[in-house]
Amino acid sequence: MTLDLAGRGVVVTGAGRGIGAAYAKAFVAAGARVVVNDLDAGAATAVAESLGDNTFAVAGDASSEDGVAALVQSARQHLGEIDVYCANAGVARGGTEAVAQKAWDVSWNVNVMAHVRAAKLLVPGWLERGSGTFVATVSAAGLLSIPGAAPYAVTKHAAYAFAEWLSMTYGDKGIRVHAVCPQGVRTDMLWSSGTAGRALMEPDAVDPDDVARDLFTAMEEERFLVLPHPEVATMYARRASDPDRWLAGMRRMAGALPAVTMGTD
Ligand SMILES: NC(=O)c1ccc[n+]([C@@H]2O[C@H](COP(=O)([O-])OP(=O)(O)OC[C@H]3O[C@@H](n4cnc5c(N)ncnc54)[C@H](O)[C@@H]3O)[C@@H](O)[C@H]2O)c1
User: Fold this and answer.
1) Which residues have C-beta within 8 Å of that of residue 24, sequence separation ≥ 6?
2) Is the beta carbon of 91 within 6 A of some atom in ligand 1?
3) pLDDT class for 253, splitting at 50, 70, 90?
4) By the number of CB atoms within 10 A of the CB, which of 65, 86, 167, 258 ranks highest?
């Protein structure tokens, strides 16, 4: 299928930098009109201004029930229809089962419930029109887990599960869903992931623009799973076919890593 995004209305959450900013740039280049959301108002405005007239900065929390409602309402005012919604904002919290409750709360809200709350507002209109695209920026950690970061590993699995669920439920009714699952991407999230995170992800990290390009290829091919690191597919298959062997490998990898110092609150 040839992608025709000219004039389409797109929302990208967490687009003040990193992967979200790269998505916004790619959608604008394809002729779409883009709402650039971020918690950081200055960052959202700077990205929107750098991308020209077809962008609108809408600052705010893209995770809480009120925040998502305000974002969708404001986006509809700017765009009319929302054709594509990229639930991209995410937080990386490290730690074990003992990490502070607020690390779990923010992880569930931003990494999972943000997606559920947006879908709740968007799906009815998309079903009526028979079209709509939901992009979930998940992570390879949603397919393969990650040592040292229980809140991130668990909530990214949930985000992946929700994207799958949306696709299996509405995929034959015109709603396209894409789950983007990179390993390391050169953004502030990677730079602040501590010694262990950097040791794990930096060597094979890709650029945010590579992730956007792979998303666009997947949209063209109407493919659910977007893997900027294709080797993730092999590891995912191994995990499914021999869980004990895979867990032994993960334990070896965790043992070889320095202590995780990713944000824990
Ligand atoms: N960088 C990586 O290595 C990597 C790898 C796999 C997946 N991801 C995922 O990609 C997505 C984007 O990550 P990134 O690397 O660009 O991160 P980043 O930290 O560089 O940028 C994330 C942006 O989201 C914003 N944000 C955070 N919470 C928000 C909220 N509640 N509402 C609105 N905006 C909010 C932040 O202000 C920030 O500008 C995340 O979901 C992340 O988990 C990143």
Assistant:
1) 10, 12, 15, 34, 36, 47, 48, 51, 55
2) yes
3) confident
4) 86
Count of structural domains within the chain: 1
**CATH code for the domain in which residue 193 is found:** 3.40.50.720
Contact 147 CB / ligand 1 (< 6 Å): no
154 belongs to a structural domain = yes
pLDDT, tens digit, 9 for 90 and up, residues 125-151: 999 999 999 999 999 999 999 998 999
236 part of the active site: no
Residue 265 domain flag: no
Q: What is the pLDDT of residues 37-92, one digit of tens each?
A: 999 999 999 999 999 999 999 999 999 999 999 999 999 999 999 999 999 999 99
Three-class SS of residue 58?
A: strand
Determine the atom of ligand 1 nearest the C-alpha atom of 180. 7
- Specify if 262 maps to a domain: no
- Inform me whether the pLDDT recorded for 260 exceeds 60: no
Domain, as residue range, for 249: 9-256
Q: Is the CB of 19 under 6 A from ligand 1?
A: yes
- Selecting among 152, 160, 170, 236, the annotated active-site residue is 152
Distance 90 CA to ligand 1 centre (A): 4
Neighbours of 51 (CB within 10 A): 19
Q: Which two tokens stand for residue 28?
A: 């604008």
Q: Whose CA is nearest to atom 10 of ligand 1?
A: 137
Q: Is residue 134 part of a domain?
A: yes
Ligand 1 atom nearest residue 18's Cα: 16
- Give the pLDDT score at 198: 85
Question: Which H or E run includes 168?
Answer: helix 150-170
What are the φ/ψ torsions at residue 214 (nearest 5 degrees)? -65, -35
Task: Quote the ligand 1 centre to 136 CA distance (angstroms).
Answer: 12
